[in-house]
Specification:
14 strands; binds (3R)-3-hydroxy-3-methyl-5-(phosphonooxy)pentanoic acid; 36% helix; eight-stranded mixed β-sheet; 9 helices; single chain; alpha+beta
């Protein structure tokens, strides 16, 4: 790119989405989760964000211009400005530079895939690369800060900064755990190292109730205490299963967490349902297929109707054929997305012109 007037440099990051096995649902204080959560980072579902920064004249206000997939997007820009204003006292760059931010997702906008984890982590990685241009901080500190600020933008985004499995939220079962940022789990049994995530698109429409509203409804939820206990127990059990390569325990926790998340929505006040009729049909088919074949596979759902089918790569052939023959009829326009456990964020560019 040619140097425009006042442009000091540009940075670009690619950051992935993640899928939670133990779900984060409900928060307190400043984006502190009411329970620990565990996810794995995806590979193909990612956001690419570039920030070009130029000297600004006087104002100390945050000055940004945001372009999403080549068009102005006022809704996203307002969300970003609000977040940047919340964190601006920790950064010098907002006082010095105007930021031109452009962003795009690898997955279709209308796929019903949550993009806040990938988009917010990509944005934060760019901000930190501008704030710390001379690699004065170690990689460990850099990614921990990235996780910390991503959490403030969107809780689940805190878990997208690392490869493989990640835990966010304090638990007595992992010394390095914290409510402020996520940590990577580095004791994973090889059976989980090549997990596949086939995302069956049941409905790509925007959800009726946002995750922010869902977290809020947990504040006075009648099952809140039981949910916190369950999530802590699942975290403990899942850590053990991930260490030992116990797929059956992984499977059980993964499905109870998914159905539990949706049960919490159905029993909120007001109650709401985000699953669809076809989500249930797919779940039945998966359980039937598992009983018949004895293969390692399980499902999970995010806060929406789409089904994530999770299995080791060794089952790819049988499960792809199962999806094509028996599940695609329940998907919107036969749509599904193939993803897998990924290697974490990647810096794509760093150019400073001075
Ligand atoms: O990060 P948020 O505020 O969009 O919440 C996401 C919550 C779930 O996706 C439903 C679960 C999770 O842990 O990712």
């Amino acid at each position: 790119m040619g140097k425009e007037k006042n442009v000091i440099g540009s940075v670009k990051w690619q950051s992935p989405s993640n899928i939670a096995i133990v779900k984060y649902w409900g928060k307190k204080g400043k984006q502190i989760p009411i329970n620990p959560s565990i996810s794995f980072t995806l590979s193909n579902a990612f956001t690419e964000t570039e920030i070009t920064f130029s000297l600004k004249q006087t104002s100390t206000d945050v000055s940004v211009n945001f372009i999403f997939e080549q068009s102005k997007n006022q809704l996203f820009e307002n969300k970003i400005i609000k977040f940047l204003n919340d964190i601006k006292s920790d950064f010098e760059i907002f006082g010095k530079y105007h930021l031109q931010i452009s962003s795009k997702n690898s997955f279709p906008h209308s796929a019903g895939i949550a993009s806040s984890a990938s988009s917010m982590s990509a944005l934060v990685l760019c901000l930190l690369s501008v704030e710390y241009p001379d690699s004065k901080i170690s990689d460990e500190t850099f990614f921990r800060k990235a996780s910390y600020y991503s959490r403030l933008a969107s809780g689940s985004a805190s878990r997208s900064l690392y490869p493989g499995f990640t835990l966010w939220g304090k638990t007595e079962h992992l010394n390095s755990s914290s409510d402020d940022y996520a940590t990577t789990l580095n004791f994973i049994h090889p059976i989980f190292n090549d997990l596949q995530d086939s995302i069956l698109i049941v409905d790509s429409k925007q959800k009726k109730v946002s995750s922010s509203e869902g977290h809020r409804l947990m504040e006075n939820h009648p099952y809140k205490d039981a949910r916190i206990k369950q999530a802590n127990d699942h975290t403990h059990e899942l850590i053990r299963a991930l260490k030992e390569g116990d797929f059956k325990t992984f499977e059980r926790i993964c499905e109870i967490e998914a159905l539990g998340l949706h049960s919490l929505m159905m029993s909120s006040k007001p109650s709401y349902v985000l699953m669809g009729e076809n989500s249930i049909k797919i779940i039945d088919k998966i359980r039937e297929f598992r009983l018949k074949t004895n293969l390692n596979l399980c499902f999970t759902l995010d806060a929406g109707p789409n089904i994530h089918l999770i299995y080791p790569k060794s089952n790819l052939k049988e499960i792809t054929s199962f999806i094509e023959k028996e599940l695609l009829v329940y998907c919107e326009s036969n749509k599904w997305i193939s993803d897998e456990l990924g290697a974490g964020p990647k810096q794509l560019n760093k150019s400073f012109y001075e």
